[in-house]
Design goal:
The protein is built from nine helices and 24 strands. By secondary structure, the chain is an alpha+beta fold. The protein folds into three domains: about 140 residues, Immunoglobulin-like (Sandwich), CATH 2.60.40; about 140 residues, Sandwich (Immunoglobulin-like); about 110 residues, Cytochrome Bc1 Complex, Chain D, domain 2, CATH 1.10.760. The longest helix has 20 residues. The chain is globular, with a radius of gyration of 24 Å. Bound molecules: protoporphyrin IX containing FE and copper (II) ion. The site of copper (II) ion has 6 residues, from loops.
C-alpha cells in the first residue's frame, strides 16, 4: 500500500480512545509522545510518583492502521530524573523500538516502524530495572486496525490494569515510595484499572445508553499479575482473544496476560451499574481492580425483572475493605487532630467501608440499603448509630418512612475510625452536624 501523505496522530488519555481509522489509506503517521514523572494519587490520601507516557496511566492511546509508517518521537521532559525508552509490541524490530528510543532527561529520540500486523498491542518502558519502570506506570496501548477498519460500535473505551507496590500497606497515607522487594515477590498492595483506585468509579464511571454497542480496549501492564477481566451482569458478545484476530463469542471472563490485551464487545440491554473487575476477586474488592459502567435507559423487564436497579450486582459491599477474619481491630495509627482531619479521614473510611452499600452521597439503594443522607434514624440517636457501626444491625427498621429488614454486618474498624466516619456522615448530606469522639465510641463499646 503506497504511503500517500503524512498526518499527526491523535493521542488520548484513558478512558478515551482516538477517532476510528475507518477507511483511510495507510499513511506516514507522526506520533509525539512525552515522558513525564509526576506525583499523583493512588487512592484517597495515598500519593505516588508515577512515571508516565503522556501524563496519564496508562499512557496515551495510539491508533494506527496496518501498513502505516509510524514516525515516533519520544521526548524525556527536562524535569525528569531518569532515562527511559519505549518497547511497542506492535513493532517488528530489535527491542520493539527500545534500543533506538533510549533517551535521557531533556532529550528526544526519533525512530520509525511499519505496522505489519493488525491487533491491539501493549507498549511499555524497557529501561532497567524494567519491572520498576513498568510498576511505576510506564505502559499503554497501541491499536493497529485492519484495512477497512473495525466494525462500527456506539461507544469505545480504554481500560488498562496494573499492579502497584508501595512501602506502606494498602491504604497507608502519605507519599508512598515503590517497594522493590514486594514487586519481586509479586505481593501487590494495589491492583487497579487506569492507574488509581476509583479511576473508573462514581463520577469517573464509563457510560452508555440501553441498546448501545460497547467496545472495550482492555490492556494489562502488569508488571506481574494476569487479569481475569469480567463485567458483572454482562456477557461479552465477542472477544478478540489476546487482542488478535481470533474471535471468541459469548464469553464470561477473558484472560488478559501481563503485557497483553483483549478487545471485548457487547451490547447493553438493560439499565444499571455494571461492575468491571479482575475476577481474582480480592483484587477487585480489596486492592482496587474495580470500575463501573453506568447504563441509562428504559427498563427491559423481559430481560431482567429486578426491582432494584443500581447496585444489585454489588456482591459483597465495600469497594475496598479489610475483611473481618478475626475479632481483632487494628487501632488507627494517626488519630485525627482537628475536625477537618476527622472529616478527611472519615471520608476515606466511608469510601472504603460504607460507600458500596450506602452509596457515594449517602442516598442508599431503595429496598436494600437505607439512606444515611437526611436520615431521621441516624439523627435521632447518636449512640444507636455508633452501636450500628460497632455491632451491626438486623431486623426491621424504618428510615424516612421506608421499611428495611436486612442485615448490616459489624464494621471491623478502630474506635477512631468509627468516630471519624460517623462525624463525616453527620456533617454531610443534610444531617445534624454532630461530632463523634473516640470516647463516645468507647462508651458504647463498654
Ligand atoms: C443501616 C451506617 C456500612 C448495610 C445503617 C444505619 C447506619 C449505618 C447509621 C442505620 C440506618 C440509617 O440511618 O439509615 C453505616 C456506616 C457504615 C456502614 C457508617 C460504614 C462504616 C454498611 C455496609 C453495608 C451496610 C458495608 C452492606 C454490606 C446496611 C443495612 C442497614 C444499614 C442493610 C439496615 C439494616 C436493617 O435493615 O436492620 N448503616 N453502615 N452498611 N446498613 Fe450500614
Ligand atoms: Cu522508564
Amino acid at each position: 500500500i503506497p504511503v500517500s501523505r503524512e498526518m499527526i496522530a491523535e493521542l488520548t488519555s484513558p478512558p478515551n480512545v482516538p477517532t476510528p481509522i475507518g477507511r483511510r489509506k495507510a499513511k506516514k503517521l507522526i506520533v509525539n509522545m512525552e515522558i513525564l514523572e509526576e506525583e499523583g494519587e493512588l487512592t484517597d490520601g495515598v500519593k505516588y510518583v508515577y512515571w508516565t507516557f503522556g501524563g496519564s496511566v496508562p499512557g496515551s492511546f495510539i491508533r494506527t492502521r496496518v501498513g502505516d509508517e509510524v514516525e515516533f518521537t519520544l521526548s524525556n521532559h527536562p524535569d525528569n530524573k531518569l532515562p527511559h525508552n519505549i518497547d511497542l509490541h506492535a513493532v517488528t524490530g530489535p527491542g520493539g523500538g527500545a534500543e533506538s528510543s533510549f533517551v535521557a532527561p531533556g532529550h528526544e529520540k526519533t525512530f520509525s516502524f511499519k505496522t505489519l500486523n493488525p491487533g491491539l498491542y501493549v507498549y511499555h518502558c524497557a529501561t532497567a530495572p524494567v519491572g520498576m519502570h513498568i510498576a511505576n506506570g510506564m505502559y499503554g496501548l497501541i491499536l493497529v486496525e485492519p484495512a477497512g477498519g473495525l466494525p462500527k460500535v456506539d461507544k469505545e473505551y480504554y481500560i488498562m490494569q496494573g499492579d502497584f507496590y508501595t512501602k506502606g500497606k494498602n491504604g497507608e497515607r502519605g507519599l508512598q515510595p515503590f517497594d522493590m522487594q514486594k514487586a519481586v515477590d509479586e505481593h501487590a498492595d494495589y491492583v487497579v484499572f487506569n492507574g488509581s483506585v476509583g479511576a473508573l468509579t462514581g463520577d469517573n464511571a464509563i457510560t452508555a445508553k440501553v441498546g448501545e454497542t460497547i467496545r472495550l480496549f482492555v490492556g494489562n501492564g502488569g508488571p506481574n499479575l494476569v487479569s481475569s477481566f469480567h463485567v458483572i451482569g454482562e456477557i461479552f458478545d465477542k472477544v478478540h482473544v489476546e487482542g488478535g484476530d481470533l474471535i471468541n463469542e459469548n464469553v464470561q471472563t477473558t484472560l488478559v496476560p501481563a503485557g497483553g490485551a483483549a478487545i471485548v464487545e457487547f451490547r447493553v440491554d438493560v439499565p444499571g451499574t455494571f461492575i468491571l473487575v479482575d475476577h481474582s476477586i480480592f483484587r477487585a474488592f480489596n486492592k482496587g481492580a474495580l470500575g463501573m459502567l453506568k447504563v441509562e435507559g428504559e427498563e427491559a423487564k423481559k430481560i431482567y425483572s429486578g426491582e432494584i436497579r443500581e447496585g444489585i450486582y454489588l456482591p459483597e459491599g465495600p469497594g475496598i475493605q479489610e475483611m473481618p477474619t478475626t475479632d481483632e481491630i487494628v487501632e488507627a495509627e494517626i488519630p485525627a487532630k482537628s475536625l477537618d482531619e476527622q472529616l478527611e479521614f472519615g471520608k476515606q473510611i466511608y469510601m472504603q467501608n460504607c460507600f458500596a452499600c450506602h452509596q457515594a452521597e449517602g442516598q442508599g439503594i431503595p429496598n436494600a440499603f437505607p439512606p444515611l443522607a437526611n436520615s431521621d434514624y441516624l439523627n435521632a440517636d447518636v449512640n444507636r448509630a455508633i452501636d450500628v457501626v460497632v455491632n451491626g444491625l438486623s431486623g426491621e427498621i424504618t428510615v424516612n418512612g421506608e421499611k428495611y429488614n436486612s442485615v448490616m454486618t459489624k464494621q471491623m474498624i478502630s474506635s477512631d475510625d468509627v468516630a471519624n466516619v460517623l462525624t463525616y456522615v453527620y456533617n454531610n448530606w443534610g444531617n445534624s452536624k454532630k461530632v463523634v469522639t473516640k470516647q463516645m465510641v468507647e462508651n458504647v463499646k463498654n
